[in-house]
Amino acid sequence: MSEAALRAHSEAGGRGRDEAPEIVVVGGGFAGCVAAIALAGEGRKVALIESSPTIPDLFRAEKLAGDQLPLLEELGLLDDFKAASTPVEEFVNIRGRHIVDISRQLQLNMLYRDMIEVLRKRVPAQVAIRYDRVEDIVTGEDGQRVTLAGGETIETRLVVLATGHGEALRRKLGLQRVRAHSRPTVSVAFTLTPPADGFRFQSLTAYGERQGDRVDYISLFPIGADLRANLFLFSDIEDRRLKAIDERGMPALFELLPGLRPWIGDCGWVGDFASFPVELCKVENVVRPGLVVIGDAFRTSCPAVGTGLSCALVDVVCLRELVGRWFATPGMGAEKIAAFYGAPRKMARDFSTHALAFRRRKAVTDESRAGEFRQTAYFLARGLRDRLRRFAS
Ligand SMILES: Cc1cc2nc3c(=O)[nH]c(=O)nc-3n(C[C@H](O)[C@H](O)[C@H](O)COP(=O)(O)OP(=O)(O)OC[C@H]3O[C@@H](n4cnc5c(N)ncnc54)[C@H](O)[C@@H]3O)c2cc1C
Does residue 380 sit within a domain? Predict the structure, then answer.
């Protein structure tokens, strides 16, 4: 949506702006937009406050797959994403020169800013969207006060904090961020253009070839006519191999993952290299009257595992299930809020995301002989399973 259209939407929400909102959602990224849509769908009066009037070109998730698709369907949003994305169903998975297996599942590919555009278009007109920075939030059992950068204050019953990696408000609220790991996962993205005769695959995943090089995998998938690459390393942003890819493009990429050359050797290098380090963090002492923290503001997940959007969607589904009961009685005490963090579905999703991230990091970074043996055995077993499956069908 253009800036003008976004402002028009904001004006259309003017009616909601005059009335005190029951819920203020702070942050209009993936989690905040989905929350605003779902809570308005429950009949609540919602205001959405986002600091950036234009959709920022953030490097975040660029694909939707797995449990994200049924979750989007549950929230009535799947068709919007299907219409705006490039779908793929077949994945060739390689390690070095060898094909590990060929897997199938629906994956919807699109840039993050396009995901946010889809969502902002779906925010109903009765939601008052404000483009302003929230400077302060004061919470209590009987009401919350949200202060905007211009000094205006909004009184509400519930605040949903969906500010992603933003630290300022969390710090003001005294929400302590705890690191789960000392080293970040570095994600890299860039675009390739197709050779004259097109790509030889729908989607390709190439796993790290040498134990100890800390490369998890690179995923290559189409967005429109181009091929998008997401590379994940358990390293740090100063890694000289990343600088080399940024400066020299394909030759440096093939030094890191030689097995890629036969598959994409004749692609064109666009040069839109972007990298982003993600620390695995979670907030502690999060149960506060009148405040719910969702998405990356609550916990960042390892981007290599690809479940950050799942966590955000499960957060919203759990919140949607609770709000009716919360608003049926006075107050918004901590006992109500605690039910959100204790929701079995949320706890299960958060736990498996966290466990998967640690398993994955350990498997890739364990340089011992046993670690190398385990990785080799893992890929051999996958390949064998695939061949047996194909033989049986
Ligand atoms: C490089 C990378 C790759 C990833 N890949 C995947 C993947 O393949 N699959 C997957 O499932 N997940 C992936 N993730 C994780 C996923 O992208 C995130 O979990 C998800 O985008 C989090 O959304 P969010 O709304 O919580 O945060 P964000 O999208 O960061 O949104 C936060 C919003 O809050 C706004 N804001 C901040 N402070 C204020 C304030 N004071 N006032 C008003 N507004 C404010 C910001 O402007 C922003 O719009 C990846 C993450 C990264 C970083």
Answer: no
Give the Å distance between the CA of 296 and the centre of ligand 1: 6
Q: Is the pLDDT of residue 286 over 50?
A: yes
- What are the pocket residues of ligand 1 if the criterion is a CB atom closer than 6 Å to any ligand atom? 26-32, 49-52, 58-61, 63, 133-134, 162-166, 169, 187, 276, 278, 295-297, 303, 306-310, 312
Do 188 and 249 sit in the same domain of this protein? yes
Same domain for 149 and 198, yes or no, is: no
pLDDT in tens, 301-314: 999 999 999 999 99
Residues 6+ positions from 164 with CB-CB distance below 8 Å? 27, 29, 31, 295, 296, 297
Identify the domain containing residue 42 by its residue range.
3-60+112-180+280-359
Q: What share of the chain is helix, strand, coil (3-state, %, to 5)?
A: 40, 25, 35
CA dist., res. 201 & res. 54, Å (int): 35
More confident residue, 56 or 69: 69
Find the CATH number of the domain harbouring 79.
Answer: 3.30.9.100
Using a cut of 0.90, tell me whether the model's pTM lies above it: yes
Average pLDDT along the chain: 93
Residue nearest to atom 12 of ligand 1 (CA): 308
Atom of ligand 1 nearest to the CA of 306: 9
Query: From residue 87, how far is each of 42, 67, 196, 200, 224 by CA, in Å?
Result: 30, 16, 21, 16, 9
Same domain, 201 and 267: yes
Domain count, the chain: 2
Same domain assignment for residues 40 and 126: yes
